[in-house]
Amino acid sequence: MPDFPLATALAVGTVVLDGGLATQLEAQGHDLSSALWSARLLHDDPEAVVAAHAAFAASGAQVATTASYQVSVEGLAAAGLDATEARRLVVRSVHLAEQGAPEAWIAGSVGPYGAALADGSEYTGAYADEIGVDRLRRWHRPRMEWLAEAGADVLACETVPAAAEAEALLEEADMLGMPVWLSLTTVVDGDGIVRTRRGEPAGEVFAMARELDAVVAVGVNCTDPAAVGPSLAAAASSGKPLVAYPNSGEGWDAGTRRWTGTPGVDAAQVSAWLGAGARLVGGCCRVGPADTARIAAMIR
């Protein structure tokens, strides 16, 4: 781990994020088709997770994002594991990232409620209004606390599809006093307005972070590369450094649990993202170490 905070680095330059951890694990030959996705390997094959982190570190990534995106007490209970085991696996995710990328900042992945449902609802946010902010806070709290206690440098509250969930995560982060970044998954509508997957104006959601000292960056992930530029413009309303780590441009089919379309993250787009204020730059789903190396080369 660097001997200074991530926020300090962002104040003076750009930091390279890693890519899709599940993508790399699949490239290593692992089947991630279960409801637990890459979280299954925290239990079954931790060395595979270390190897995936190491692959991204070798490609130039300066941040290692933990394999805790899919972990929840409820999801693990459905797989026959209790809350004690859930905590152990979350803590293990931090230690495995440290082993694989000892020179990197460790970002504890805090995926949305929908990710634990494994039904694609993190790309709709359909659950957010019904569940509400208070319940979402209670649901996210244990994992955020465990990641902080395990020694993560920052929490990556990522692929957030709805305003209510963003509010819940920001309130929890503020209470915890832990550095976090908030990353929405967004779309651009026919009028050119950037919206959450739930349909709210994204600029209003990003603005929630303006007065919170714990928030080191806001931006987008698991978003089509073409939507990154407009999304960063909307995120500028927060006054925070910006984060951008889109997916490959493919789409996720929740029914068949497969990616469809043609991959296409073009590292040449990175300069435009930097010009828009991005200071944390990398990739998400279907973005592997080779893509990270190209992004790092563009930045450096």
Walk me through the structure.
- The chain is of the alpha/beta class and 300 residues long.
- The protein has one domain: TIM Barrel.
- Helix content is 43%, strand content 17%.
- It has helices at residues 6-12, 21-27, 39-44, 46-58, 73-78, 83-100, 113-117, 128-131, 133-150, 163-176, 202-206, 228-235, 270-275, 289-299, and strands spanning 15-16, 63-65, 105-110, 154-160, 180-184, 186-188, 194-196, 215-221, 242-245, 251-253, 258-260, 278-281.
- Helix 4 packs parallel to helix 6, helix 6 (83-100) packs across helix 9 (133-150) and helix 9 (133-150) packs across helix 10.
Short overview:
The chain has helices at residues 6-12, 21-27, 39-44, 46-58, 73-78, 83-100, 113-117, 128-131, 133-150, 163-176, 202-206, 228-235, 270-275, 289-299, and strands at 15-16, 63-65, 105-110, 154-160, 180-184, 186-188, 194-196, 215-221, 242-245, 251-253, 258-260, 278-281. With 300 residues, the chain is α/β, with parallel strands linked by helices. This is Homocysteine S-methyltransferase.
Question: Helices and strands in order, then pairings?
Answer:
Elements: H1 6-12, E1 15-16, H2 21-27, H3 39-44, H4 46-58, E2 63-65, H5 73-78, H6 83-100, E3 105-110, H7 113-117, H8 128-131, H9 133-150, E4 154-160, H10 163-176, E5 180-184, E6 186-188, E7 194-196, H11 202-206, E8 215-221, H12 228-235, E9 242-245, E10 251-253, E11 258-260, H13 270-275, E12 278-281, H14 289-299
Parallel strand pairs: 1-12, 2-3, 3-4, 4-5, 5-8, 8-9, 9-12
Antiparallel strand pairs: 6-7, 10-11
